[in-house]
Every structure is written in C-alpha cells, then in structure tokens.
Amino acid sequence: MSEKGKEKKKEYLVITSGKMWQPYNWYVGEYWTKFFDGFKEKKFLGIKCSKCGTVYALPRQVCGRCFVKMDEWVELGPEGVIGAFTVVKFPYIDPNTGEIIKPLPFTVAAVRLDGADSAIWHYVNELDESKIKVGRRVRIVWQDERKGNIHDIKYFEFID
Fold it and tell me: 81 near 138, Cβ under 8 Å?
C-alpha cells in the first residue's frame, strides 16, 4: 500500500501537573449586591411585596405570588426558627470547589428568620439529632471578618 493510502495516527500528549486554581468574579445584580452589602454590617435584609406583603428572606425582583416588582427592603432576624434540617454524614463533592466536603458530619437547616415568610438553608452548629427540633429557635453567628457573601454567616446556634 502506498504512503498516500495510509493514514497517520496522531498522538496527543497529556500533561497533568495537579490542581489548578482559576479565580473569577461575577456581578450578582442589584438585588443580591444590596443583600450581601447588608452582611458586612451584620444585617440580614429581606424584600417585601407591596401588594401581598410577603417577605422573602432571599432577594428577588418579582413576587412569586403576585408577579409585582418588589423594591421595599426590610431588616430580618437575626433570630428565627428551624423548619427542616438534615445531618449530612456521607461525603460528596462541593460544587464550588470540586473537592470532597469536609469535615463530616455537618448539619444544615431551613431557618425562617423573624419577619420573613421564606427560609434560608445554612449550617447549624449541632450534630446530635436528638437536640435538633423543627420549631427550635436559632440565631445567626457572624464571621469576625465579613466580605459580603453567604459565608459571612458562620452558622446558626440555638438560643435556648
């Protein structure tokens, strides 16, 4: 067979040197910027619908019930009640980092802050399931240094 008829096989060189970090920033929009700016001052801001009065713990431009644009900000919490919880005991990949979540176990709960009609999921500093109850009161524990993101809330702790 002539050289013309033969296809040359290509080889690809793959070099793996370990982990790579690619920092990036993105704009979260006017509502989330205002929301996270409140964290810097240890304030949890909600947004209230002018038509039905629903207060959302996490900001959104339009009310999910009335479809009305919202622009009335209200300060919530810093206390609230547990509506649901789970103690995570199995490892899984953190979608933010690609790493296995550590340490295990940890507890997350849906907390409805005082003055809100919706809940936020976040860490609770308790692992004993017999002590965690739906309806139990908690409060925000803030990081000492806050940067204006969801990690400014260190965890929720029991009040009683």
Answer: yes
- Residue 107 resides in a domain: yes
pLDDT tens digits for range 71-121: 999 999 899 999 999 999 988 888 877 888 878 899 999 999 999 999 999
- What is each CA distance from 67 to 16, 32, 33, 58, 74, in whole angstroms? 50, 19, 22, 16, 19
Our measurement of the distance from residue 123's CA atom to the centroid of its chain's CA atoms, rounded to an integer in Å, reads 10
Listed residue (142, 80, 151) closest to 116, CA to CA: 80
Give a yes or no: residue 4 inside a domain: no
Q: How many domains, in total, are found in the chain? A: 1
**Nearest residue to 49 (alpha-carbon basis) of 32, 33, 72, 27:** 72
Dist CA 131 CA 138 (whole Å): 12
* Domain with 123 in it: 28-158
Question: Pick from 80, 83, 100: which is nearest to 91 by CA?
Answer: 100
In a domain, 16, yes or no: no
Q: Full-prediction pTM beyond 0.85?
A: no
CB-CB neighbours of 23 under 10 Å: 4
Q: Tell me, yes or no, whether 1 lies in a domain.
A: no
